[in-house]
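[audit] Reproducing an earlier prediction to check determinism. Same input, same settings, fresh worker. If the tokens differ from the archived copy the diff job will pick it up downstream; this log only records the rerun itself.
[audit] input (125 residues):
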Amino acid sequence: VQLQASGGGLVQTGGSLTLSCAASGIALSDYAMGWHRQAPGKEREMVAEISTGGAMVSGASVKGRFAISRDNAKNTIYLQMNSLKPEDTAVYYCNAALIKCTGHMCDIVDGHDYWGQGTQVTVSS
């Protein structure tokens, strides 16, 4: 299984970038997908997640500026990032998790939680 993230780069404050994450070895349509980021000296944080049914959740710091989407036919997810700020500077990672729900209890299936290699996003002030 491979998740290949791309699209990072250097952008000025207020600019936009679109990250892509292409999967091989799994069918993304079966997986909950997400973008997470980690800045130097900080813990990894959730940026945005999208379920197999298309339900989306965004982190408070990016709400209204970032949007996650998925194209199951291309086995790819995207993160559209607008109005970028210097505090958005981080390595961005994509994640695929196979979720199993029993009643109202859902959990990640052991061994089916995958991470991409990360792509650097740098926002200059």
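[audit] rerun output stored. Observation attached for the diff report: Residues 37 and 43 are 8 Å apart (CA to CA).
[audit] end
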